[in-house]
Amino acid sequence: MARKRLLFVHTGGTLGMLPEGNPGPLAPSSYAENLLPYVRGLEDKVEIVGEVFSNIDSTDFQPSQWEGIAELIASRMEEFDGFLVLHGTDTMAYTASALSFMLQNLPKPVVLTGSQRPVAEVRTDARNNLIHSALCATLDIPEVGLFFGSHLYRGNCATKVSI
Fold first, then answer.
1. What Å distances lie between residue 12 and 2, 25, 41, 91, CA to CA?
2. Beta bridge partners of 138
3. Contact 48, 134 (CB under 8 A)
4. Can 138 be counted among the known catalytic residues?
5. Per residue in 109-159, pLDDT tens?
6. Which residues partner with 9 through β-bridges?
7. Architecture of domain 4-157 in CATH?
8. Is-contact 128 57, C-beta < 8 A?
9. In the chain, where the domains are located
10. Which of 11, 14, 91, 124 is catalytic?
11. Which of 21, 39, 97, 115 has the greatest number of C-beta atoms within 10 Å?
């Protein structure tokens, strides 16, 4: 079976924060290239192409960013088998819902994910969310979804809760 091509759309968020130096404070990464060491094993199943859309705190997301992500995905639809939007958790559910209405009649999956802890930390949820959301983006589920905490949710049915 041929590898699926996925576009990782980086918008910011905790998942991609990496230390500057050793030790060093966390800082946003340039994403795709820096995340690949943390998702070993995926390279047999998917070809990952990264694109930085933005690198902002998700609390600063506005409808114009939703429109920009939708336009980016629509413009690259023919090039990829699926799309993974890496997003901060504060407003990820809002973005997923907005995209589900903006990208109607999708022929391919669009999955959003994020994490509570940076990918480079030992006890992180980022690797699980990243690997499984990428695999979900290869499935024949042509709609917007949100993968978090070992669950795939419909994009317009997700909410953020604190436990």
1. 30, 16, 24, 11
2. none
3. yes
4. no
5. 999 999 998 887 888 898 899 999 999 999 999 999 999 999 999 999 998
6. 51, 85
7. 3-Layer(aba) Sandwich (3.40)
8. no
9. 4-157
10. 14
11. 115
